[in-house]
DNA sequence: AAAATAATGCTATGCAATATAACAGTCAAT
DNA sequence: ATTGACTGTTATATTGCATAGCATTATTTT
């Protein structure tokens, strides 16, 4: 029942309790926090954070998409995309165009500069991922991606 | 270059852009957010959220630990643990005891009630994890845990 | 055709998690 | 004996995400 020696506390680095280390949710949170921190650091060179990057990539890949649909895809609140779009637009990365058939909708189209920047961001984020995943084989990375997708239910094709 | 049909936007559920689906960080964030949301919901029955639970589990498993060391283990700020401990203490889940050798340090010990509650929380969170991971075999769960641990560097023993 | 329902983009506001800065008291090291 | 480091703490900032509501426009139901 005693177990731990109680020694000097400031020795740093002790392990997480077993009960937590057994929980996948715990590892998910730690890994995700670590990733988000470093991903944002990597993207600083492009002057964005992960969310604006995701929005721009979505516009680039689905030209003519509406902001509401981006929100559905990225599961974010319509209210929260507003400042993100405002900034991307101010930087000239996409344009809004009125939908001819539905006056509520603005369709978003990437500019040439937007496509360039999206490519640059992809380069930065890919380098970051490579660093993060250096300890895993390609097959393992695929497995990991697949399992994570199953958890939040985007195909995971299993 | 055209690709997507542009159709009605409100059809819901479209897939994330390929560029994002290739990123493990993207899946990490989505999976972690999903987990955190449901874990907190599951823990509502015990009147805690994930962080206070983690703190209590740590005290329970390492009796006599100091708050500073909990912060080092869970990688949280010393400032932020204060209200967490205040609440757990108010609920009678642990006790503070002065360290005989170092007047700066308070050593934290779980009460009987604290151990009970910790057990109860573990039950709730385990049920939640079981639901979350229903689509994965036990071997896959072990693999997932191992890979996540490698990412943020808590053994992962690989 | 009228009325009810719902979607869009948006403002304003809230909350929870995490981060930063500073402090007094205590201990360790030179 | 001074310097530097660590503890627990207060106060405050920042960030990400959530909620509520609004005017406008479309769709659906009656």
From TrEMBL, chains A, B:
InterPro entries: HTH_MarR-typ, MarR/SlyA-like, WH-like_DNA-bd_sf, WH_DNA-bd_sf
One Pfam family, short name: MarR
Keyword DNA-binding: yes
Residue span(s) of domain HTH marR-type: 21-153
Keywords: DNA-binding
SMART domains: HTH_MARR
Highest taxon of the lineage: Bacteria
Keyword DNA-binding: yes
Molecular function terms from GO: DNA binding; DNA-binding transcription factor activity
GO BP terms: response to stress
PROSITE patterns in alphabetical order: HTH_MARR_2
PANTHER family xrefs: HTH-TYPE TRANSCRIPTIONAL REPRESSOR YETL (PTHR33164:SF43), TRANSCRIPTIONAL REGULATOR, MARR FAMILY (PTHR33164)
Full protein name: Winged helix DNA-binding protein
């Amino acid at each position: 029942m005693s177990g731990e020696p109680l020694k000097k506390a400031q020795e740093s680095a002790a392990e997480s309790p077993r009960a937590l280390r057994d929980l996948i949710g715990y590892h998910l949170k730690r890994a995700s926090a670590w990733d988000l921190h470093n991903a944002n650091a990597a993207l600083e060179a492009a002057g964005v954070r992960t969310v604006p990057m995701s929005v721009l990539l979505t516009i680039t890949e689905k030209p003519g998409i509406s902001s509401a649909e981006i929100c559905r895809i990225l599961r974010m609140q319509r209210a929260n995309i507003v400042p993100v779009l405002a900034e991307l637009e101010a930087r000239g990365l996409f344009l809004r165009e009125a939908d001819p058939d539905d006056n509520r909708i603005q369709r978003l189209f990437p500019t040439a500069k937007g496509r360039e920047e999206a490519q640059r961001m992809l380069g930065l984020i890919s380098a970051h991922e490579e660093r993060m995943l250096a300890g895993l084989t390609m097959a393992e990375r695929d497995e990991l991606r697949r399992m994570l997708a199953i958890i939040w239910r985007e195909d995971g094709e299993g």
